[in-house]
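Project standup — Tuesday

K.O.: blocked on the structure for the chain from last sprint. Re-posting the sequence here as requested.
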Amino acid sequence: MLMRNPFRFFVELMQQPVWIPIWLFFLMIINLVSLGFWHEPLAKLIFITFMISAMLMMGLYSRFGFEKILGLGHILWVPLLVYVLM
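H.V.: unblocked you, prediction finished:
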């Protein structure tokens, strides 16, 4: 099966309506701010979840392309949310 270059994800992202890449950039910045609080365990967990989710989404993109299945890359945020709320 043909595998896509994962960096093409960003090319396809920029072809979406303008608000989508802006929103994604905003979310990426918010998640990267966790590096400024690295001494906090929750900040480490947020950053690690962000990085693993990004790698998962790049893998899904490589296999399936820019499809709805990319939503599975957000699955790790559910247990993180439960942890944060507790």
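K.O.: great, moving the ticket to review. The mean pLDDT is 93. The CA atoms of residues 34 and 40 lie 9 Å apart.
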